[in-house]
Amino acid sequence: MHVRPMTPEALAEHVAEAVAARAPAGGWLRVAVDGAAAARPGDLADALVDLVRAAGHPVQRVSADDFLRPASVRFELGRRDADSFYWSWLDEKGLQREVLDPLGPGGTGRLLPTLWDAARDRATRAAYTELPRGGVLLLDGPLLLGRGLPLDLTVHLQLSAGALARRTPDDEQWTLPAYDKYRAECFPEESADIVVRWDDPRRPALVEAAN
Predict the structure, then answer these.
(1) What molecular function does GO assign, one term (predicted)?
(2) CATH no. for residue 112?
């Protein structure tokens, strides 16, 4: 294994190049930037938008936070249950039905960018949009790998246990056991296509397999 330090800008360019290299002309590419909330995976996903568009591919941004289950389901075992956060908060079927499957083989490209407003605990009532062929979905969120979601390219922002604890707000410390279980059961550092050490987002490092 080789670890290559990069600037944030160089990292975004590297990932964008990998995305552009895989994007099919006649279909779609479903890309996920996976990372704990403390890693702010949405920031990297946002940084990729203009780069991927500059490479000639339409882009649709989607956040897993807009595909959470209703509060009655998320908080069935309490508001701070780590196991529920790990497996029950994300509406996997809704995300797959409304976003991922329409961009898969035989899909139409017609997707729903948001489904549920967790803050108001109600449907967003968003309008459907269409991503042209050759387009790229940039999805961000935590705990996305190991769920069987149909993704074509995955990026994992890896935080050490110490960095994760330091950067997680006090009122979210209860989520830490979920991330421990995620690492132990889903092995995101091994299953992701691109792994980035993200303890200091000002100095990310790309993890590359040894030749």
Answers:
(1) kinase activity
(2) 3.40.50.300
pTM of the complete model beyond 0.85: yes
Q: Write out the chain in H/E/C secondary structure.
A: CEEEECCHHHHHHHHHHHHHHHCCCCCCEEEEEECCHHHCHHHHHHHHHHHHHHCCCCEEEEEHHHHECCHHHHCCCCCCCHHHHHHCCECHHHHHHHHHHHHCCCCCCEECCCCEECCCCEECCCCCEECCCCCEEEEEECCCCCCCCCCCEEEEEECCHHHHHHHCCHHHHHHHHHHHHHHHHHCHHHHCCEEEECCCCCCCEEEECCC
For residue 140, the enclosing domain spans 2-208
Q: In DSSP terms, which residues pair with 23 in a beta bridge? A: none
Q: Could you report the per-residue pLDDT of 117-168, keeping only the tens digit for each?
A: 999 999 999 999 999 999 999 999 999 999 999 999 999 999 999 999 999 9
DSSP β-ladder status, 205-208 and 2-5: antiparallel
